[in-house]
Amino acid sequence: MRTRSARASGLAAAAALLFSTGCGIVRVAVPVMRPAEVNMAGYSTIAVGGMQGHHDRAMTTALEEGLVKSERFKVVDRQHLNSIMRELKISASDLADPENANKLGKQISANALIFGTVEEKYAEEKGEDSFKDNKGVTHVIHKLRGEIALSATFKVTDVSTGQLVVAKTYDERREDTNTGIDEAPRPIDRDGLSKSARGSVLRQFLHAIVPHKDYIDAAFYTDGDLPQLETGIGYAQRGDWKKAQDVFNDAIGAAERNPKIKSKTLGKAYWNLGLSYEYAGDYAKATSMIDKAYQLSQDADMLAELDNIKRHEAEAKKLAEQTGKGEVIRESK
């Protein structure tokens, strides 16, 4: 199994396997749930105190929408929150004081309060170049380059204690270049660059406090001597891991009864079975099957999957702690 963070190495490993064994590979995008960096299970209701700085309203609104969409928290109505803050004579900048955060939290029955800052810098530079066309006429290429540098700091305070439980800063840059031949280039879409950068830092912060969906790029093997493997992969593509396991087990049984089947071919069946157990959350069986696949194929690249299984098992346990639902890493399509 290869996650997005290791996709480049995963593709390289898959290519090595492909050329060393002459087999086919079918890549399956498996949807999974990733745990948040910070366990926020103890906070059921959150208030967004506001983001100060550039495009503060846009960031605050997007943050509220993201929290509501996650369905992990109850989010205090913004108008109600502003009304209480006016009554208490508390501004967004005052929320860094634990006493103010605690005072506000008691009035709105929130467990946690989010606030922060957004800083944005924009710069443009112009340039020119020239060329001659096939008639010898000189033309001027006018260039306009714009770049946004955005930095956002998000803080989460426990309103009952005033303790800071999360403090994250994210930096993003976006740039674009427009050109015009013998004329001024179009203006840079500064708002578009800013929106893209804000969206990126917001996603990163939400991933820090909310479990989120991701995709694993899984490499299953096919082999002409074991056509059942393709059938099992078909079930894997649908997220039906039980049926995939049944077919891969049947393929293994057929291969072990056929003396003409090579050990490397049998190893592919065990590999596929191991992956199907892994994505179903049965990590002990997954480890056993992948180990068997390695013993049959003697392909060292397969051993890397054992580390993946351990990491995903740890993530599944962490996710269960955060959700209280005993979720495994897999999320069915």
Please give a handful of descriptors for the protein shown.
single chain; 333 residues; alpha/beta; Serine Threonine Protein Phosphatase 5, Tetratricopeptide repeat; Rossmann fold; five-stranded mixed beta sheet; three-stranded antiparallel beta sheet; 10 helices; disordered N terminus; disordered C terminus
CATH level-four homologous superfamily name of the largest domain:
ABC-type transport auxiliary lipoprotein component
What general form does the structure show?
flat
Please compute the radius of gyration using only Cα atoms. Answer: 27 Å
Which percent range fits the helix content? 40-55%
Major sheet summary line: 5 strands, mixed
CATH topology of the largest domain, which one?
Rossmann fold
CATH class of the largest domain: Alpha Beta
User: Strand order, biggest sheet?
Assistant: 4-3-5-6-7
SS element count, helices? 10
Q: What is the mean pLDDT? A: 88
In terms of per-residue confidence, which ranges show pLDDT below 50 for 5 or more consecutive residues? 1-22, 327-333
> CATH architecture of the largest domain, please?
3-Layer(aba) Sandwich
Order of helices and strands: EHEEHEHHEEEHEHHHHH
Per DSSP, what share of the residues sits in E-state strands of 2 or more residues? 25-35%
Number of separate domains: 2
Beginning-to-end CA distance, first to last residue? 17 Å
Please give the number of β-strands.
Answer: 8
